[in-house]
C-alpha cells in the first residue's frame, strides 16, 4: 500500500529470558495502515500483540524488520502518534486535575491554544464539567475517557490503543467503544488497536488482523465491510456482524490450537 501512514515490514522482536536466552515473540509481522483506517489486532494470549504495539509505537526497538511512520523510520515515539493503555489508573497522574492531565498531551502549544484544545477534547469524550476533579474522584470509565482526551488533545495522526477497555465493566465498555467510534468518525486519524474482544474488533474496525501463536506472524486478515456509523443495537444484531465475528473467532481459535500444540511439544 503506497499511501500508508504506518508501514511495518517483517517485524521480529525477541525478549531476553531470565536465563539469558532469547525468546522470539514476533517472527515476521507485516502490516500497513492507511490514512483514516481503523485496524485491530487480535490473537491468542501471549502471541505478542502488546509487544508488537510497543515496537510499532517506538517504545521498544525491534530485533529485525522496519517500522516507518510518515515515510520516517520509527526509533522513538514519534510526534503525531498517541497511545492509550489498558491501565488508566497508571497512565493518569493522580496529583494533577483532569484538566492538567489532559493538557499534558498538548505541552508544545501556547497556553491559550492548549486550553482550547483541552476544553474541546474533554467535550468530545463527555467530560465537560470535570476539569477540576482528580483522577481518583472519577469512575474507571471516566478515567479512561480522560486518557482518551489526553491522546486526542495532541491531534494525532495515529491513535494506538492497547486493550483500552479491558478494565471496565461491559456496559461502560460499550459506551467507551462508541466514544472511540465518534472520535474516529469526526476526525482523520488512523487507529491501531490491540484487543482480546473479537466483537469489539469487528464493531470498530475496517480490518482485523489475527496473529498466530508465538513466535507470531499474521495468520489472517479480515476486511470488515459493515456500514458506518455503527451502533450496538443494530450493527451487533446484523447477520453480517455475526458472520464476521464468527470468521475472526474461528481464526483466533485456530491460532490458539497452534499455541496449545506448541506447548505440548516443549
Ligand atoms: N519485558 C518482558 N520480559 C520478559 N518477557 C516478556 C516481556 N514482555 C513480554 N514478554 C513475554 O512476551 C510474550 C508476549 O507478551 P505480550 O504481552 O506481547 O502478548 P499479548 O499477546 O499481548 O498477551 P495478552 O493477550 O495475554 O495480553 C509473553 O510470553 C510475555 O511473557
From TrEMBL:
GO molecular function, one term: ATP hydrolysis activity
Gene3D superfamilies: P-loop containing nucleotide triphosphate hydrolases
EC assignment: 3.6.3.-
Record-linked CDD domains: ABC_NrtD_SsuB_transporters
InterPro entries: AAA+_ATPase (IPR003593), ABC_transporter-like_ATP-bd (IPR003439), ABC_transporter-like_CS (IPR017871), ABC_transporter_ATP-bind (IPR050166), P-loop_NTPase (IPR027417)
Residue span(s) of domain ABC transporter: 6-238
Name of a matching Pfam family: ABC_tran
Keywords: ATP-binding, Hydrolase, Nucleotide-binding, Transport
ATP-binding in keyword set: yes
Protein name: Aliphatic sulfonates import ATP-binding protein SsuB
Species name: Acidithrix ferrooxidans
Amino acid at each position: 500500500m503506497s499511501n500508508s501512514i504506518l508501514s511495518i515490514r517483517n517485524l521480529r522482536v525477541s525478549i531476553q529470558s531470565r536465563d539469558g536466552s532469547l525468546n522470539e515473540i514476533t517472527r515476521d509481522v507485516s502490516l500497513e495502515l492507511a490514512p483514516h483506517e481503523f485496524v485491530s489486532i487480535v490473537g491468542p494470549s501471549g502471541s505478542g500483540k502488546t509487544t508488537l504495539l510497543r515496537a510499532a509505537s517506538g517504545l521498544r526497538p525491534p530485533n529485525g524488520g522496519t517500522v516507518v511512520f510518515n515515510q520516517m523510520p520509527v526509533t522513538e515515539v514519534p510526534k503525531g502518534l498517541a497511545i492509550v493503555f489498558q491501565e488508566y489508573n497508571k497512565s493518569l497522574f493522580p496529583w494533577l486535575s483532569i484538566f492538567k492531565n489532559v493538557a499534558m498531551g498538548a505541552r508544545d502549544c501556547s497556553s491559550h491554544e492548549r486550553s482550547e484544545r483541552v476544553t474541546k477534547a474533554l467535550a468530545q469524550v463527555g467530560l465537560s464539567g470535570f476539569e477540576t476533579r482528580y483522577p481518583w474522584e472519577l469512575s474507571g470509565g471516566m478515567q479512561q475517557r480522560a486518557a482518551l482526551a489526553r491522546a486526542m488533545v495532541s491531534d494525532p495522526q495515529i491513535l494506538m490503543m492497547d486493550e483500552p477497555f479491558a478494565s471496565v465493566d461491559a456496559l461502560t465498555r460499550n459506551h467507551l467503544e462508541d466514544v472511540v467510534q465518534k472520535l474516529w468518525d469526526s476526525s482523520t486519524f488512523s487507529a491501531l488497536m490491540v484487543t482480546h474482544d473479537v466483537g469489539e474488533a469487528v464493531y470498530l474496525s475496517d480490518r482485523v488482523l489475527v496473529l498466530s501463536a508465538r513466535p507470531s506472524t499474521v495468520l489472517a486478515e479480515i476486511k470488515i465491510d459493515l456500514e458506518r456509523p455503527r451502533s450496538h443495537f443494530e450493527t451487533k444484531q446484523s447477520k453480517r456482524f455475526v458472520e464476521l465475528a464468527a470468521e475472526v473467532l474461528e481464526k483466533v481459535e485456530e491460532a490458539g490450537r497452534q499455541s496449545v500444540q506448541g506447548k505440548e511439544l516443549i
